[in-house]
TrEMBL record:
Protein name listed in UniProt: HAD superfamily hydrolase (TIGR01450 family)
Active-site residues, Swiss-Prot/TrEMBL: 15 (nucleophile), 17 (proton donor)
Source organism of this protein record: Catenuloplanes niger
Family indicated by similarity: Belongs to the HAD-like hydrolase superfamily.
Cellular component annotations (GO), alphabetically ordered: cytoplasm
Keyword Secreted: no
Cofactor: Mg(2+)
Length: 274
């Protein structure tokens, strides 16, 4: 009988930034760990709040790192946000996008019209992470929202991990608009909302999925909301000290230094020794 953490799960859902890679560089051991899952025939999926890449682009990035992946294995907040907008708006409705080209492409793909100015009278504002987002973009969004446009945020991650340390994430840009407008977004799509995780499980018919993430307030809280076990890896944002101080809704089931922990005996947070 095996005592590996991974045994007993029929799907592993990975966060990406801080878990599998940092920006465009794989985290040491990640390629090898995911290869072992493939060899064992255990399905994998990737759920990311980063709205700056489409699913096919993420799959290509992973494949280029030595992790074979298909677009069907990738769920992004950009794609999920486009789906939400398509449900709530009529075909062809105008959406002012604050973010990267990937978010624009996803919204256009569901039959909506992307605009960039408040004077175009958009029915919604979609705000996602983009490295080129600036004051002018936020100003247009502010005017459009004050005029009555629905405000959707792809996610509210305060930071995103990088080799140089945490950098401002979409949540920091959302906070700027929240401060200017004096209110919250109407819709927040990404983690910790459970939809990315539950959709991943539904796609492969999994009944016992394990979520692997580096953030308590998104990945692990999302796992709790989805009714799934969660593994915190210490290669990204949060530490084991953060985990021990976290509220119940953000508590990981297990903790490991990196993805090699999938193939070791399970370790609970209170039992982890650095």
């Amino acid at each position: 009988m095996s005592d590996r953490l991974i045994d007993g799960y029929d799907l592993v859902i990975f966060d990406l930034d801080g878990v599998v890679y940092l920006i465009d560089e794989p985290i040491p051991g990640a390629v090898e760990a995911i290869a072992r899952l493939h060899e064992a025939g255990i399905p994998v999926a990737y759920a990311t709040n980063n709205a700056s890449r489409r699913a096919a682009d993420v799959a290509g990035l992973l494949t280029g790192m030595g992790i074979p992946a298909t677009p069907d294995e990738v769920l992004t907040s950009a794609g999920a946000s486009a789906a939400v907008l398509a449900e709530r708006l009529p075909a062809g409705a105008r959406v002012l996008v604050v973010g990267a080209d990937a978010l624009r492409a996803e919204i256009e793909a569901v039959g909506l019209t992307v605009v960039s100015k408040a004077e175009d009278r958009p029915e919604a504002v979609a705000q996602g992470y983009g490295p080129a987002v600036g004051w002018a973009d936020l100003a247009e969004a502010s005017v459009a929202i004050r005029a009555g446009a629905m405000w959707l945020a792809t996610n509210t991650d305060k930071t995103l991990p990088s080799p140089r340390g945490p950098l401002p994430g979409n949540g920091s840009l959302v906070a700027a608009l929240r401060h200017a407008l004096g209110r919250d977004p109407d819709v927040i799509v990404g983690k910790p909302a459970p939809a990315l995780f539950t959709t991943a499980a539904e796609r492969v018919g999994a009944t016992k999925a394990l979520v692997v993430g580096d953030r308590l307030d998104t990945d692990l809280e999302g796992a709790v909301r989805a009714g799934m076990d969660g593994l915190l890896v210490l290669t990204g944002v949060h530490t084991v000290e953060d985990l021990r101080a976290a509220p119940a809704e953000q508590r990981a089931t297990f903790v490991a230094p990196d993805l090699s922990g999938l193939f070791a005996p399970a370790v609970k947070a209170d039992d982890y020794k650095a």
